[in-house]
Amino acid sequence: MNIQNTRERLLASTMIGGAALLALAATPAIAQAQDQEATRVDEIVITGTRIAQANLVTTSPVTQVTGEDITNAGVSRVEDLVNQLPQVFAGQTSTVVNGSSGTATVDLRGLGAGRTVVLIDGRRMPYGSPAIAAADLNQIPAAMVERVEVYTGGASAVYGADAVAGVVNFIMRKNFEGVRVDAQYGFYQHNNDYDGVGNVRAEIARRGTTNPAEFQLPDNNVRDGETVQFSLIVGTDVNGGRGNITSYFTYRENNPVFQADRDYSACAVGAPNAASGPDTFSCGGSATSANGYFTDFATFGYTLNPNNPAGEFIPYNANIHAYNYAPINYYMRPEERYSFGVFANYELNRAAEVYTQLMFTDSSTLAQIAPSGSFFNNESINCGNPLLSAQQSAAIGCTPADIAADNDVLFYVGRRNVEGGPRVQDYNLNSYRLVGGLRGDISDAWSYDLTAQYARVQYTDRYIGDFSTARLGRALDVVDVGGTPTCRSVVDGTDPNCVPYNPFRPGGITQEQIDYLSLPLIATGYVTNQVLTAAMTGDLGVYGVQSPWASSGMQVAFGTEYRRDFLTVNTDSGYQSGDGAGQGGAFIGITGATTARDWFGEFILPIAEGLPFAESITLDAAYRHSSYNFAEDTDTYKVGLDWAPTSDVRFRASYARAVRAPNVFNLFNAQNVVLFGRGGGDPCGAAQTATLAQCTATGVPAANYGQAFIDSPAGQYNNLTGGNTALNAEEADTYTYGVVFTPTFLPGFNMSIDYFDIEVEGAIGTFGANNTIDACYGIGAFSSSDPVACARLNRAPGGQLWTNNGFVENLTINTGGIVTKGVDLVVNYNMNLDDFGLAGMGGLAFNLTGTWLETLENTPFDGAPGLECVGFYENNCGFGSPEWRHRFTTSWSTPWDLNLLLTWRYHGEVEHYGLTGAGLNRIDRYFDAYNWFDIGATWQAFDNTRFRVGINNVFDKDPPLSYSGGGNGNTYPGVYDSMGRYIFFGVTADF
Are 4 and 45 in contact (CB under 8 A)? Predict the structure, then answer.
């Protein structure tokens, strides 16, 4: 066969800019042959086509990260390095805790992880878990990664639905010979001396004077987040090289980082207030507090006096009594993962090579957040409750007559289960991937590849530490039976196990009460992915099908593919009923399947080669027709042109039509109320962004307009989400234009500049709960009130959107569109210091990978104004979309078997989205541009042993802070290094 997968190298005769000399860089696939001594170059299949080529030049940009880059960067998770690429936006990472799926995802161009297809050796990965459609990068064994290719732009014509933003292709090591052992230890070290915007250290210290149990500054010097990883690769050729078997085993364990151990995350920051001062963040928190918040949300609000054992209500003051939920939360989740697998191939003869890939991964992680409790879930209490003291009964409006008659009064309880400990979500995911195939050459012109793939991901989601809303109601409905406080449900026999809940006395909570109220929750499920592919590739030049100006002929590929994704999730009664007090709604099971039957074809046609002003001109095109069981048929296509007038410069352009078909979640998700974050509060709350008339028209009682209790104390509100079987496939048009420079007068230098333009129409998603609120009241990006949006606001009787009966309808629909445009720049320069008079001093390699973002615009619905996110963060703009991001790497290959590495990461300035009026004065309005520096070294101590050491974020730069609440720990740790400097040591030994 002409296609050959090489071990430990990729085109030995080809310069892949920056990858040589261990540049620790992401490099574009633009290199051309530099070593004239090579007489034969093996053909390879590059991401974006099924046709094997003898060079890495494509009409669409392909950025590359090598396996060596991953190792030398010291990252323990693949996503940590991939997320550093300027084309990639943060998705699910190990720093997502509240809202975690237990997975790691990749989001190209900020279009959403669901619009990025992730491949292993050109074959699609399955859903990440039964909880998320995006592929889980935890299933990738980092030690087996030879390189990662990131293909920009629509690729549906080659890889099928969902490749709207592009694809990320993990090319795995194959044909490995020998034994490789790798081990690494790393940890975070941070000096707690935050001196950025908000003066949060002073505020924590001030709050600690009145509430030392919840507000404490961490130690000045902390070390945590330890990571241990180990991998073993064993490979051998068989029968004289006709086949190979490569097996691997990897293990990784990451310890957690707590928010308590960073001064900038040790309290939940809020807007400055009178007590903190105008230039200092307040330490906010939750009204569901340690000593309770007892209120009717209208006439009274109390907390428990912890110093009066008789039971006394005193006025609740949020500036003193709000619960600091931050310290106990994980900043980074603990994880444990092991994986093993086998890659094998054997050439029976020239016409038949069998191959297989068997992969298994077991991944476990914990997501820990603050304790559960009573989140104002119940609306009344009986005045005859014997657990209430006389002072407390009178304070909430119970008259003697009410007590005698045991009447109910309006009464909400917000009280943390601090005695019972935190809520912990325990995820365990097992993934299996089996690939088997037969390929070979039919003739000198034709080759075939028949592949069958089966993947299964199964998970268990155990939620520990929540309370039962129904049991809380029964435990607060207490009567006196012979002088013994007794649940009414015990008296009438409806729940003989009920234990009265007593948050009305200091020390009144017992373990018996906690045991009764606790509601463990569990969900199990699995997803399967089945793919059958039959493909043919041919060189029509053998038959004379070629341009008269070219020396090589047309190459083609065509075939058919069948895909089936099946998902089922089973939830227990607690999840299904929404009985979990801290869940924000029900979690209902789902079962469904989608199928796709595709026909595809593509060609590459050299038009001219080796002519004046036409060193090469190449045309390529691809087409795919797809039939789905729950969506209309789609046609996707691509056309590209590549022109190199000389060997020094190359121009390229491409156009692609891509689609994203509705997946199982989009189609079949049960309707369910879940939480969403909102910065700036409810427009009908304390900020009074909307008018009284607008608010009363949408269900806010006039007396409650402008009241602080309309705002969620935690910045979290309810929205009703769910699937829709009437969805259509979304469509996208992708344009790329680029130029590649490889000047012969400057050996070792190459540069590519590529403009991208991606326009998505009929995007599958939701209008957005925040957009719905803004559109209803004509605020933010919406200039006038939209009655359709107002109809989707369902307020509770008190006017809230965050208590049990309030929510924003936010179902899955075909919405408006998304547009993103910008320029990718990649510059590589490799230089031998001998050429500069420094004989024997080795060489330097430089790489710059950057993206200038012109537009990232979301249009919520047709005809709506676009919401521009370039240069903004939060609300509709997520974690931030700066105009410019880059990664610049310098490496020095010394003459002493020592390589030194320096990486500069840059993230441009962003501004808080949607601020008007007084909001323009927010102290977190701007996040300054950020620079991080990483250093590293590798030492080839022996022929078979290499050591490495490094420090990432060497200057321990603190992240920017915001009280908008969309990230974790007052910032966005998927974007900004938030744990401090990361120090690692590793060794690789080959035998």
Answer: no
- Residue with token string 């326009």: 759
In sequence order, what are the beta bridge partners of 988?
182, 946
Strands 116-120 and 166-172 turn out to be: parallel
Determine contact, residues 286/713, Cβ cutoff 8 Å: yes
Q: H-type helices in 214-277, by residue range?
A: none
Residue the block writes with tokens 């490799």: 830
The model's pTM: 0.87
User: CA 212 to CA 249: how far, in whole Å?
Assistant: 47
Contact assessment for residue 773 and residue 679, using Cβ atoms and an 8 Å cutoff: no
Cβ atoms of 173 and 113 closer than 8 Å:
no
pLDDT per residue over 492-531, tens digit each?
999 999 999 999 999 999 999 999 999 999 999 999 999 9
pLDDT of residue 13: 27
Rounded distance, CA 763 to CA 819, Å? 11
Overall size of the chain counted in residues: 991
Q: Which two tokens stand for residue 272?
A: 């400055």
Determine the pLDDT at residue 53: 59
* CA gap 943, 931 in Å, rounded: 37
Secondary structure letter of residue 580 according to DSSP: B
Nearest Cα to Cα of residue 235 among 174, 183, 182: 174
Rounded CA separation 514/518 (Å)? 6
Asked if residue 474 lies in contact with residue 487, where contact means CB atoms within 8 angstroms, the answer is yes
For residues 111-143, one letter each, b for 16 or more C-beta atoms within 10 angstroms of the residue's C-beta and e for the rest, the string is bbbbbbbbbbbbbbbbbbbbbbbbbbbbbbbbb
**DSSP3 helix / strand / coil % (the chain, rounded to 5):** 15, 45, 40
Which whole-number Å values give the CA distances from 955 to 541, 931, 934, 938, in the listed order? 58, 10, 9, 21
Name residues whose C-beta falls within 8 Å of residue 921's C-beta, 6 or more positions apart in sequence. Answer: none
List, in sequence order, every beta strand (DSSP E) within 210-319.
221-238, 243-254, 257-258, 269-270, 282-283, 293-295, 301-304, 313-315
Question: Within 425-510, where are the H helices?
Answer: 469-476, 488-491
- In 3D space, the residue among 352, 446, 232 whose CA is nearest the CA of residue 990 turns out to be 232
Residue 321 phi, psi (nearest 5)? -100, -15
CB-CB neighbours of 358 under 10 Å: 15
Residue predicted with more confidence, 152 or 217: 217
Instruction: Calculate the CA 603 to chain-centre distance.
Output: 35
CA dihedral 508, 510, 516, 520 (to 10 degrees): 110
- Quick check: 642 and 649 in contact, CB under 8 A? no
DSSP assignment of 4-59 equals -PPSS-S-TTB--TTTGGG----EES---B--TT-----BBPPTT-SS-BSS---S
Between the alpha carbon of residue 396 and those of residues 291, 304, 572, 713, 968, the distances in Å are: 17, 13, 37, 21, 36
Structure tokens at 403: 């007590």
Distance from C-alpha of 414 to C-alpha of 304, rounded to nearest angstrom: 11
Examine the pLDDT at 24 and tell me if it is beyond 60. Answer: no
Residue 572 clears pLDDT 60, i.e. is over it: yes
DSSP string, 435-447: EEEEEEESSSSEE
> Residue-wise over 310-346: b if at least 16 C-beta within 10 A, else e?
ebbbbebebbebbbbbbbbbbbbbbbbbbbbbebbbe
